[in-house]
Fold this sequence. Notes:
1 helix, mainly beta, 6-stranded antiparallel sheet
Amino acid sequence: MGFSYVGCIWDWISGSGTTITTQHPAATIDVDAGDLIVAIGGWEDTVQDPIEDITLSSASNTLVPSNGTWATSITSSGGNFLVMAYKITAANATESFTMTLPDAAPYRGIGIMVFRPDAGDTVTLDANGANTGTGSGTDMQSANINTDYVSDNVIIGGAKWYSMGACTLETIALATADAAVDLISSGSDCEMSMWYKSFTAIDPGDGISAYAKYGGGTVAWVCDILAYKSVAAAGGSTIPRYKKYYDYRRSQ
């Protein structure tokens, strides 16, 4: 099975400030040792702040920027800023998460997804790097990644855009997401989304991306993608599924 989806928590604040903590739909989420935490954070500004001072953390987990340092993991488009970060937890805890910016900024959002690997499996980062896509329009898409598929994968997309309104479609490698969460402030207001897709019996492929279609008009947007693999311990019952040299998209 690879990964099971534990759940998502998030919050969204329109007013200006330096911090935001997950509060909705619940203030805390239970994580176990070995769980995978993936976070997105977004905000708006007219200039790029000293981004190396940004943190995404909880009481027991300081998350790792998707590209290794905050300075290279934050991307902007039309005043929209997006970060992705992750952590493989070391201990059981009941967590809330906070994003801290060096300077006050409006329209701050934070979203956390938690995934649990099969018992005894080891979770590792599969693909990251300069995977962010930026643009303007209704079709939001990350840059491409190549997956090193040797077992079970979970791939997560995240997006921040400039306007109110939800997405109408979220995919990974052209496959419909298993779950998508629009970060809603009030009513139908929404400017961030995160979604995931598990791959347990087929290689996601190379040159794949995260995609989301915005339901409104033309907007500036940022979109990113991260991939993780769950590998069974030696002697375990999971048979590694070795990489197939074809594009997953052709099977759709």
